[in-house]
Each structure stands twice: as C-alpha cells, then as structure tokens.
Write a structure and sequence with these properties.
The chain is mainly α. It is 71% helix and 0% strand.
Length: 201
C-alpha cells in the first residue's frame, strides 16, 4: 500500500499512537476469548451434567441440562459477532503501528513478522469461530432434535484445539504490546523521553 495513504490515517495521534485514548482491539480480544471459552466450557458441563448432577443438587442449585447448552450456544453466536469487530479494529490499529525495527521478540521474530502472523492468525481464528458457530447451530437445531445432549465430542475437541490456538495467537499480540510497545501508552512516552510521573497523574 502507498505509504502516503497510511500517513493520512495518522491524523492527531495520541501518546499511544492512536486517534483515541484507549486501544479498542485489546479490549475486544478479551470479549472474544471470554465468550468463546465460556461457550465451550458450558457445553462441556452440559455433556457431563448427568455425572455432576449430584453436585448441583448438593449446592441447592436448580439447573437443567438444557440451560448449559443455551449458554454455550448464545456465547458462540456472540463470540462470532464480537470477533468480526475485534479483527477489524486489529487491522486498523496495526496500520497505525510504528514499532521499533531493531528488536526481536522472545520467539525470535521482528515486529513486522509478528504483526503479519498476528493479523493472519486473527483472520484464521475468526473463520474457525464462525465455522464452530455454524456447527454448533447445526447440532442444536438439526442433529440433537429429540436428544437430551446438544453437542458432539468432536465439537468439544475442536473447541479445545481452537482455545490452544488462541493462546498461541494471544502470545503474539502480547509480544506486540509488551516487547515492541505497539499502542502501549507508557512504553511510547518512555521512548519519547517523557516523565511518566508528571504526565500520567
């Protein structure tokens, strides 16, 4: 892309290198993670419900197996919707990133390599989450019709694999912020030689 076009995006950037105070992408990432993990976890509890029913009875918690599956389904739908905005905000903020070029991450990657892998990984994860949501919807409305259990073990195993990929992918994002200082307000101010004690009060 033409560097001049990217420069046009850099109008009135703040101390974190963004035109707004708080980065959007990292905050949406936590919604994506939370919704997906809760969705898979509640489906696991729903599948194991017959063996754990006595625990809920002992704790005097009135719950039906279907309630766990409802939470799993609606969290997967919400995760897909949020992830679209997470990836979109990530690409916009990545265009505005100006990381140092002389540093390598703990994984031996430079800033551009880390951003590219993180960007491509975000799109892949979004696709996987969308596929998981479609799969979950098929199980809920077609496969499990007339059944007590709404999800297959293969679905839960795929969810566990995706959670591991999220961990690897999230580590790349953490390296961008912590090691390269991408959109990290304190890091940027320190690089500019500012005194954080007077600015951040």
């Amino acid at each position: 892309m033409n560097p001049e076009l990217i420069e046009q995006l850099k109008v009135q950037l703040g101390a974190n290198g963004l035109p707004y105070t708080i980065p959007i992408h990292p905050n949406l990432v936590h919604l994506t993670l939370g919704l997906f993990i809760i969705g898979i976890t509640f489906d696991i509890v729903g599948v194991l419900f017959p063996t754990q029913k006595w625990v809920f009875k002992f704790l005097a918690i009135t719950v039906e197996r279907e309630n766990f599956f409802d939470v799993g389904w609606y969290n997967m739908v919400a995760s897909t919707i949020i992830t679209f905005f997470t990836v979109s905000a990530g690409f916009y903020e990545m265009l505005l990133a100006a990381p140092p070029t002389d540093i390598k991450s703990a994984w031996g990657l430079q800033a551009m390599q880390t951003m590219l892998w993180h960007g491509v990984g975000g799109v892949v994860l979004f696709g996987l989450i969308a596929i998981m949501t479609l799969w979950r919807g098929w199980q809920r409305y077609v496969w499990s019709e007339g059944e007590d259990r709404q999800v297959q073990w293969s679905y839960l195993a795929a969810g566990a694999v995706i959670m591991f990929l999220m961990y690897v992918h999230g580590t790349l994002g953490a390296q961008l912020a912590a090691e390269f200082g991408v959109h990290n307000t304190a890091d940027r101010l320190l690089r500019l030689g500012e005194d954080l004690n007077t600015i951040l009060k």
